[in-house]
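Translate structure to sequence.
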């Protein structure tokens, strides 16, 4: 027997099974019906219930009927009576409901239509049953039972008429209508009535007449249209309705009943329900206390039994911990069921528990709980289309973990082949786990070397994969296949640093140092210099030197590593300078010599762009190597412009460069030196005449030219001077016209602005006395002064103008320069 206990008091039932006697798997699982039902039963008590495939109907002791969904949520409420609801009945369509109560009220009504029957009898009505096909117009029938069983039918004029089907044997306490047969129970036994032939076809007497029928009521259940199951006291009878042969008819009904099975149970029956060819029995249990030797109400039991002709076989038995079971009687329990889904509802005054058949997922749960992993895996494989909550892979992984925990490493490794298949990510995880526990040799014979699909790795697997590549011996896997797989993965995620580092390690193991070096340089990895020295890769980094610039924090180390290769050192520092003029500033002095030795064309640009190289050192090196252009630049930068100009004229003999240098320096003394040097050199004079016009007065040069000196292209030079002069005159006149036009436009704009009116209303105040600018009495004369700065004053609040200046100024703005606000607008009335 299995006891069902509630794990969390007051919450929806999540049942736990405590095995007391056997290791047998339970047949049913249980769940407390909660939500709206919990709210109802906190204030009221359940008296009856009916189950339909679409909804549930619950009656209470306070005369309420609630419609519920299968989760127990309230969808509709009916206030039928102030007293207990005795029974609820539904037709097969679920569209019509019949309700009877302890005060004699009977109601039959449509849930979705307006038709209704309402009657109040002078005695309590214990039972009601509507025709299963009540929705049809030809089947508008129902029966009620109190002291007698009444059949109500609607006539062709929509009037209800009644007839007595049975009376005189005590109260009718149970009724079930199936097809054309009505079964009911009174104090004497069970009767079956054929509604088509209007004949009672049997009477099944009750066995134990010592039991009070009101305390131990009869339970009726139709298994199908011709099989009735009767439970009363501790007795169960299975009755089959059969057709009588024509030769046996005479004055007998056309049908008769045969009892095909009859047996006794251990406890009193509170409810019955069919389950395939078995029975579900709800039993009321009384036990004797060992301490007081008195009877007490124990937990009710829900048994599954296999009926036999004269006995039964118990399949399973569960003791249910329902709320308030200690105070309940046999009549307080009801068992209702849903035929379509094999759901069984155990109804008690304070609780409703749902029992359902355990499915394959529940079977696997039980096997896993009992650590029967191999059986669970086999069950999942057989029923993989039917299981919903479990996955074969998850069960298999749990099985492997179980074997590892028990130390059965060889079996666990063998199971990996079947369970993991070709899932590379899981193989890597499991093998890494074997490595951690020192059992890598055990797993090695079972590894899928022939088909390592690295492309199945996801981002979460990459750190573990990188660890495996770093720690596993290289002969454990096919290096070339793994390299190709990593490269394929990088096509989808080219910036993944973990994969790039792993690929570099694979290249290093494969002695492909060039590709490994490039990846390390790209990643700015600290091991790059170790790799260069270990494998003498200096020749390989010449075309990759630019990648070394990314080692911002390693500049000193890079320069030191390249000290023996100054040409590479220069390439690295040059690329670094091009990227950022300030990163390698401490090496700018060193770069002067490197540029002079290996890259003179870039020396002058370096001197121009660098703000950190020592000029004296640079000048010394350039003078030693006779670098004229660089020396000229350094002399001018150091402030010795005259020496620089002299060097241009004497060393380079380039008048255009001399003139350009004089223009850059914009120094009158330099122009004077240039003129003095050029005065006896006709080509220099021509160059000066062509370029001097916009910087120095050409007359100064022309007056110094000796008479009779032949100057090339003198005429063209003079014409250009005159053209430049005319152009300057035109530019000045144009600028003057623009200036005058702009001044006039702005003056007109200012005049228009100052001529505009200014709004003065009640919200404005005098800036001197801070009272409203307009008087409260508009009939009185007043004077207001408004300045262009929009400050307003009463005229009497302004100071009297001085004798020296009659103009008035805004007191507030007078501290500032007197601009547009100095003028005033005066308003008088």
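Result:
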């Amino acid at each position: 027997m299995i006891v069902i206990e509630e794990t969390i008091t007051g919450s929806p039932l999540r049942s736990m099974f405590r095995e007391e006697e056997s290791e047998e798997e339970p047949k049913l699982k249980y769940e407390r019906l909660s939500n709206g039902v919990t709210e109802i039963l906190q204030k009221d008590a359940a008296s009856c219930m009916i189950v339909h495939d679409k909804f549930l109907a619950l009656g209470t002791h306070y005369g309420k009927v609630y419609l519920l969904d299968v989760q127990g949520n309230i969808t509709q409420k009916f206030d039928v009576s102030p007293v207990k609801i005795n029974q609820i009945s539904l037709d097969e369509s679920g569209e019509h409901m019949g309700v009877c109560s302890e005060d004699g009220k009977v109601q039959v009504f449509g849930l979705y239509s307006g038709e209704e029957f309402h009657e109040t009898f002078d005695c309590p009505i214990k039972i009601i049953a509507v025709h299963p096909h009540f929705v049809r117009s030809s089947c508008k029938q129902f029966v009620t039972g109190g002291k007698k069983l009444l059949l109500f039918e609607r006539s062709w004029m929509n009037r209800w008429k009644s007839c007595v089907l049975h009376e005189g044997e005590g109260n009718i306490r149970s009724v079930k209508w199936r097809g054309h047969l009505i079964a009911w129970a009174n104090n004497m036994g069970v009767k079956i009535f054929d509604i088509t032939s209007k004949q009672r076809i049997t009477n099944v007497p009750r066995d134990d007449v010592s039991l009070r029928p009101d305390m131990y009521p009869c339970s009726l259940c139709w298994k199908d249209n011709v099989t009735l199951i009767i439970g009363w006291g501790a007795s169960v009878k299975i009755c089959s309705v059969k057709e009588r042969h024509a030769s046996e008819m005479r004055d007998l009904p056309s049908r008769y009943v045969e009892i095909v099975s009859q047996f006794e149970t251990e406890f009193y029956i509170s409810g019955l329900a069919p389950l395939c060819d078995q029975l579900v029995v709800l039993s009321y249990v009384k036990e004797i206390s060992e301490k007081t030797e008195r009877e007490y109400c124990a937990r009710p039991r829900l048994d599954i039994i296999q009926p036999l002709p004269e006995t039964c076989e118990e399949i399973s038995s569960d003791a249910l911990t329902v709320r308030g079971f200690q105070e309940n009687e046999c009549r307080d329990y009801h068992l209702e069921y849903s035929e379509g889904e094999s759901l069984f509802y155990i109804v008690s005054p304070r609780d409703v528990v749902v029992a359902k058949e355990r499915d394959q997922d529940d079977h696997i749960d039980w096997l896993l709980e009992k650590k029967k992993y191999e059986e669970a895996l086999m069950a999942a494989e057989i029923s993989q289309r039917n299981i919903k909550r479990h996955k074969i892979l998850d069960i298999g992984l749990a099985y492997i973990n179980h074997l590892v925990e028990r130390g059965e490493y060889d079996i666990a490794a063998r199971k990996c082949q079947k369970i993991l298949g070709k899932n590379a990510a899981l193989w890597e995880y499991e093998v890494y786990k074997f490595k951690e526990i020192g059992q890598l040799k055990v797993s090695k014979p079972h590894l899928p070397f022939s088909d390592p699909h690295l492309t199945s790795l996801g981002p979460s697997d990459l750190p573990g994969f990188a660890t495996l590549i770093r720690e596993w011996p290289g002969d454990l896997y096919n290096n070339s296949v793994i390299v190709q797989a990593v490269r394929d993965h990088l096509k989808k995620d080219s910036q993944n640093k973990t994969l790039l580092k792993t690929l570099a390690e694979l290249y290093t193991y494969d002695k492909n140092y060039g590709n490994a070096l490039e990846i390390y340089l790209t990643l700015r990895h600290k091991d790059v210099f170790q790799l260069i020295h270990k494998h003498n890769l200096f020749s390989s980094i010449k075309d990759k030197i630019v990648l070394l610039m990314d080692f911002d924090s390693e500049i000193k180390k890079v320069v030191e590593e390249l000290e023996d290769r100054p040409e590479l050192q220069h390439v690295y520092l040059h690329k670094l300078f091009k990227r950022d003029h300030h990163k390698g500033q401490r090496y700018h002095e060193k770069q002067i010599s490197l540029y002079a030795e290996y890259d003179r064309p870039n020396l002058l640009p370096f001197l121009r762009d660098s703000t950190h190289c020592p000029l004296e050192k640079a000048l010394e090196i350039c003078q030693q190597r006779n670098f004229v252009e660089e020396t000229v630049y350094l002399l001018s930068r150091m402030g010795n412009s005259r020496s620089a100009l002299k060097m241009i004229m004497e060393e380079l003999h380039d008048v255009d460069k001399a003139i350009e240098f004089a223009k850059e320096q914009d120094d009158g003394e330099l122009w004077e030196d240039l003129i003095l040097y050029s005065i006896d050199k006709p080509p220099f004079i021509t160059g000066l005449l062509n370029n001097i016009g916009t910087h120095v007065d050409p007359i100064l040069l022309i007056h110094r030219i000796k008479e009779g000196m032949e100057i090339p292209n003198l005429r063209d030079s003079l014409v250009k001077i005159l053209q430049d002069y005319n152009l300057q005159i035109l530019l000045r006149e144009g600028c003057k016209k623009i200036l005058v036009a702009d001044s006039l436009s702005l003056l007109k704009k200012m005049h228009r602005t100052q001529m505009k009116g200014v709004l003065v209303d009640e919200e404005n105040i005098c800036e001197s006395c801070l009272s409203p600018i307009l008087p409260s009495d508009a009939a009185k004369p007043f004077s207001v002064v408004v300045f262009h700065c929009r400050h307003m004053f009463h005229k009497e609040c302004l100071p009297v103008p001085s004798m020296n200046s009659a103009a008035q100024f805004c007191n507030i703005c007078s501290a500032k320069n007197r601009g547009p606000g100095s003028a005033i607008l005066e308003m008088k009335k």
